[in-house]
């Protein structure tokens, strides 16, 4: 028991120290290679990715046995579609994302990608087909080129430049003292929140996964930056199966389905227009956001897009 408890506990502390909401999971697995709790099933083969359809079937899960965090969560994301998760803090949104990345195993129920239960395939192949764009990207103390290339280490320079272009950060990198060879991170050039997000987008473009998990930033970027990033994100997610943890409802008006999570359960689901049409949790959240201090940009966005 002690042996199991100590690494978990250490992990929890480390995890919270790095990120509040949704860890930079792709990095974490490299950092924590020796601490993995989840092991591949004997004889597990690689995920045969077809089109990236995701299904949660009656998923129940708790971090600790005595406290269930997700209860009977069932939804599916058809390939190329976008599902958004919204709900109060602590309701279980990030947990859904962590389970799909197989950070933990479900207690009951199953998570299935293209017909394959993720418990039966190798973790390496699972994580190779999923791109994660966290709120806050952890940069390596290395060059900006390496930091982008991390999405696919075999990529060549021209592919790195293309990905940077797609994430709208190429021109910015050219202004850095040594261009793509500029050292970034704690011991190098510090990048702004928006720039780090662009690095995450570039990494993901390079990885070219069928499935994207996106944690929308809560931190305020200025409106113009915000809009530009939103555009890059939308381009990246087009025709890719996407699950987004959304904080600003104005960004998910066009999601194919919105799941409202409360206390670990899906309490409402449907498209934006459907959900605001009936008095419920979502309609309330929408009203609150319109009234809050973000109102100008939310209201503007919603008028613009609807
Ligand atoms: P937020 O919007 O604030 O990010 P969320 O909806 O993503 O919240 P989760 O991070 O999924 O919520 O957390 C759901 C619940 O699980 C919370 O009560 C949280 O305290 C608990 N929890 C999260 N991670 C752990 C962990 N490693 N160990 C134990 N409990 C955890």
TrEMBL record:
Domain ABC transporter span(s) in chain numbering: 54-288
Parts of the chain that traverse the membrane: 1-15
Localization annotation: Cell membrane; Early endosome membrane; Endoplasmic reticulum membrane; Endosome membrane
Family: Belongs to the ABC transporter superfamily. ABCB family. Heavy Metal importer (TC 3.A.1.210) subfamily.
Record text on subunit structure and interactions: Homodimer.
The protein's name: ATP-binding cassette sub-family B member 6
Part of the full-length chain shown: 528 to 833 of 835
């Amino acid at each position: 028991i002690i042996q199991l408890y100590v690494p978990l506990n250490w992990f929890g502390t480390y995890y919270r120290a790095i990120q509040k909401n949704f860890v930079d999971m792709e990095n974490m697995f490299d950092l924590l290679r020796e601490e993995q709790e989840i092991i591949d099933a004997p004889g597990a083969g690689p995920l045969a990715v077809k089109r990236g359809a995701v299904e949660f079937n009656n998923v129940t899960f708790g971090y600790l046995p005595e406290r269930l965090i997700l209860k009977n969560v069932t939804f599916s994301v058809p390939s190329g579609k976008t599902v958004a998760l919204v709900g109060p803090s602590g309701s279980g949104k990030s947990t859904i994302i962590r389970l799909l990345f197989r950070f933990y195993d479900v207690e009951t129920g199953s998570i299935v990608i293209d017909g394959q239960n993720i418990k039966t395939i190798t973790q390496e192949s699972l994580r190779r087909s999923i791109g994660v764009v966290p709120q806050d990207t952890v940069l390596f103390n290395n060059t900006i080129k390496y930091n982008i290339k991390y999405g696919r280490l075999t990529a060549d320079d021209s592919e790195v430049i293309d990905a940077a272009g797609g994430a709208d950060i190429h021109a910015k990198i050219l202004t850095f003292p040594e261009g793509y060879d500029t050292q970034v991170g704690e011991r190098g050039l510090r990048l702004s929140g928006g720039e780090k997000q662009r690095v995450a987008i570039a990494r993901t473009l390079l990885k070219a996964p069928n499935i994207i998990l996106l944690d929308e930033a809560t931190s305020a970027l200025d409106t113009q930056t915000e809009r530009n990033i939103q555009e890059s994100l939308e381009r990246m997610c087009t025709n890719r199966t996407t699950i987004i943890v959304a904080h600003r409802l104005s960004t998910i008006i066009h999601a194919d389905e919105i799941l409202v999570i409360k206390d670990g359960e899906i309490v409402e689901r449907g498209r934006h227009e459907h959900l605001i049409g009936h008095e419920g949790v979502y309609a309330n959240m929408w009203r609150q956001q319109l009234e809050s201090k973000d109102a100008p940009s939310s209201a503007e966005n919603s008028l613009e897009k609807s």
